Amino acid sequence: MKKILFASTALVASAGFAAADISFSGEAGAGFEYMDGAADEWTLDHYLTLSVSMTGETDGGLGFGAEVDITSTTAGGGVDGSSAYIEGGFGKFSVGDVGSAVDEKLGLSDIGYGGIGTDNVAEFLVDLADSGNMMYEGTFGDFGIAISHDFNGTEITSVAATYSMGDFNVGLGYDDWGNIDTSSTVHVKAGADIADFSVNALYSRNDDNDITSYGIHAAYTMGAATISAAYSETEIGAASADAYGLGVAYDLGGGATFNAGVGEVGGVTKADLGIIMLF
User: Fold this and answer.
1) Residues 235, 211 contacting (CB under 8 angstroms)
2) Contact 233, 242 (CB under 8 A)
3) Cα 1 from Cα 51, distance rounded (Å)
């Protein structure tokens, strides 16, 4: 009797929210990772991420929603990526764990199953300013813009603008480091998707700290297989570190993909292989 009453109450309470929707999606992976010189050079890896998306619309047509990721990995788990937003013809305004505009719009892809880290070297300056709990995103034809700010101490402000021209795209970014120091970073990205070939390149420069980072990622698809290659480098004054590698991804169908990668990151040989499953 209590169960019937509870179910009836829940049904009545939700009757006024017919425009709302809750959806679930997920990703899981199982594989192996290798790092030369580590205490355990080969390690077993697994992860599971459940993504929850809640959307709705006001009587006036204003969209609203919230998103959150619930993740469990070999090292543990937690809740991340949570944000709430409103959107309409003006664009999308989000608050929460949104990161920086430059990281959201101008990042490069990694290679392999879990990623061996070639993108981290290219995005060294991007990651240093990847902090934000407010973001605005707007799309106007082929032009897009994103602006983020961190109100929780760092005061970092990030701006990214993108433009698409058929198979080609370009992007410009700017990070004001706020309370980290008085410096700023400029980013330039360019890419193309032509037939089965794609290439993306990123260049970042912070003059005040004399830091430059850059990288390129290219991929070619042949049927169910995609072959990728990447090179990146970071220069801090007279010192430098680079990364490079090759990767392969094979579509197994049904949302499953076999991925593998091998390369050298900062002088250390890394490799991984495994299956990624999308739900």
Assistant:
1) yes
2) yes
3) 34
